[in-house]
Amino acid sequence: MKEQEEHGDGAPHGVWVLEVAGAVLGTAIVKRGRRVPKTIAGRLWPVYLEYLIIDEDHRGGGRRHGALLEEHVMRELARQGCSGAYLQVFKEDDDWEASLKFWKRLGWEQVVGPQATHILMTKEIAASPST
Q: Is the pTM above the cut of 0.85?
C-alpha cells in the first residue's frame, strides 16, 4: 500500500494505491479540510471517502482487494486521529446495489432517508492504540 498526500502534511486529500507486483489494482481517495466536514444525523463527519476503486479484473472471487484497501485507509485515518468518515453511493452507477452491499459488509451504515441520486453512508473510526 502506498500513500501520497497532495500538497504535503495535513493536506486536504489523501491518496492510497493498492499495488501488487508492479500492477496498480486499486486506488482510494479521501478528502478532509475546511470544506469537507458534513453534518449527518446530527453528527459532524470530518472525512469524505470520495473514491475506492478496484480494477474490474481484480474484483470478487474472494480476493478481498477492496476490503483490504478500505481497512488500510481506515487504519491510517485512525492513526491520524480521525473519528469518522462518510461516503456516497450514487444510484446512477451501474452496480450501485452491489456497492451498497459491499460497504454494508465492511461495517458502513446507511443513513436513513436515501436521496434521489445517492445514498449516504457513515462509519465510525476506532481510535488507534497509542504506541
A: no
